[in-house]
Amino acid sequence: MTKDxxxxxxxxxxxxxxxxxxxxxxxxxxxxxxxRILESAQRLFNRKGFSETSIGxxxxxxxxxxxxxxxxxxxxxxxxxxxVRQFLCKKAAAPWQAKYASPSxxxxxxxxxxxxxxxxxxHFDDREGCCPLLGMASDVSRSGAAVKSAYQQVVETLVGVxxxxxxxSQARERALVLATLCVGGMVLARGVDxxxxxxDLRRAAHKQxxxxxxxxxxxxx
Length: 221
Prior knowledge:
Elements lengths: L2 H15 L9 H22 L6 H7 L14 H14 L5 H4 L11 H9 L2 H5 L6 H4 L9 H20 L6 H20 L4 H19 L8
Helix pairs in contact: 2-3, 2-4, 4-9, 9-10, 10-11
């Protein structure tokens, strides 16, 4: 029996036992608890991958009991989809994004600032708070429809932002190339042991993105 099978049994037990006389969660407490689960899930999915992360590990990392998971999600696929949507919708920038969202970069197009942040050393080093396209690259093809749909949503969002900044000339095709260079460059850089080669991969991808987009100046660290 797998860990997730065990947690499915916990779910049945929790659903059948009711509240056990306890005071129901307030809407605020339920929302805050859900956020803790989502933040824990994003960290662990990015760090360990989807298949290697169990529901129990996510709940323990969030400081919550395992059985409480099913008050918020039906399973791990739904949790992943919700964690991805939170990444897309969150208002506060991740640490690797913050430097490039500062007023000093306001003279650059939004898409250029995204590229600079995406292919930065800060993003490369942030294994827990990174874009889910990087943390899930090796897992998503073997996952279910909900996971693939959420992953695709991130891809389409990234491509859409790029296309909106590229004008009319082959905008979508160029945006697809930019997204491929950003994600592929980072996945390859993270997959090699040689730090020098990893830096070369990131910087080469960044240079070619700027060339294709027609943006000039600036070399990523």
